[in-house]
Known about the structure:
The protein is of the alpha+beta class and 424 residues long. The chain is 47% helix and 13% strand.
Amino acid sequence: MTNFWTVSTFWALFLLFIGIALAWVLPPLLRRDTRTAPRMDVKEANVAIYRDQLAELKADFDSGDLDAQQYELARLEITKRLSEDVPQESSPVVVAQPRRWPAYAIGGAIPALAVALYVWLGNPEALVVEPAPPAPEAATAGPEGRHDVAPMIAALEARLEQNPADAEGWYMLARSYSAVGRFEESAQAYAKVVEQFPNEARLLADYADVLAMAQGRTLKGKPQELINRALELNPSDEKALHLAGSAAYESGNFAQAVQYWQRLLKLLPPDTDNARAIAEAIADAGKAAAAAGQVIQPAPGAEKSAPAAPGAAISGTVSLGKALASKVAATDTVFIFAQSPQGPKMPLAGVRITASQLPYRFVLDDSSAMTPNNKLSDHPQVMVSARVSKSGQAMAQSGDFQGQAGPVKLGQQGLNIEIDTVLP
């Protein structure tokens, strides 16, 4: 009985779809009028493609990835291709409709041919057989499938064949290769640029980045050498510091990773996604360093802040309340920091220790400032806090333990802060 209803349903749907097909096919064939065939507006399609390319190029220029000269060269190249690719307007084509007898022939032939083909090629028994499992989804097209970048890459390659000493062209080609995931070719292009500009720290960092991707996402070997050279040239290059921390973490030197990332954090604008991401990375590396028994020392080569003005420091002692002593592990992270009473939550200055160092004698001044443009000495009063972070993260979490004092005037000495409160 089930098979009967299955077969009946199949043929009913079959006839329904045949009727729908005929409803779409026959009316145009039965009309006697002549119509003007729509014109394929190839010009409009090409213009839309090149407009998208120009928009992406403008976005790279606005973000600082391209300078004015690079932007203008690329824009002229796209404009040239646009003028070459846009065809002339084509004339409308008048198509006369055929007589009605083919419509009747097709109307009868479609159902008959469909049934005949199904009986010959089909498998009616499949109606009562379990359906086959669905085929796996096709793989998503990789970065090479981004055809909008391909013409620009081809144009750059042709340009560099004619002028292999064009450093700007090699730089643009390297970035284009990197954007579509062709990291080995990107590294080769960066090598051409570095030959001509060996003392550009950011260029060396970019080269190290794509070279690491090309050799299996590892910074060991030549990428590490390039990073070290970049930091020798500019100890404050943000990308070089980021990669240096990643390389140290990869090699298991978690304490050194913390040093590099702490230097980077001081260069980033506060309360941004990048700053929060680096703060989380520092916390993670700090926990790994504690687990490995590594001691985090002041970062070698870090830029020294200007000496604090007289009275521009706050000092005191942080201790742990007796009620919480049994709930704190020796390896727990402790942050001691100063904040503006009315300003943002981003600390003005701070130090990081472990709970095993409590009670701890601290000094906060401009040498421990979190950002160079918002120092402790810029504020007449501050709030001073000490927090035990169970997660190791700089952001306060529920269940952390904290003590606080303030507002206190800048220059306060002998401040006593007891960590005795559990954050909700």
